[in-house]
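Morning run. Coffee first, then this:
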Amino acid sequence: MNTIFFGLLTVLSLFIFMNLGKVKASKKQMDRDDRIKWGRNRRSNLGKNRRSSEIIEGEAKEVDEKSKD
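And here it is:
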C-alpha cells in the first residue's frame, strides 16, 4: 500500500514540477536594469572587468614567522 501511495505521489509531483517549469518571469522582472547577466553575456562582462582593473603600486614587507607579537 505504501509503495502505491508514494509512487502516485512521485508521479503527481513530477507532473506538477514539469508544468510549473514552463512558467516564465513577468515582463517587469525581465526588463530590469540591474538584472544578472546569465549565459554568453556573463563571459563578456568578466573579460571587461579584467581589462579595466587597476594595479595599485605599494611596498612589500617581509613577514617574520618568529615574531608574531
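The mean pLDDT is 78. Good start to the day.
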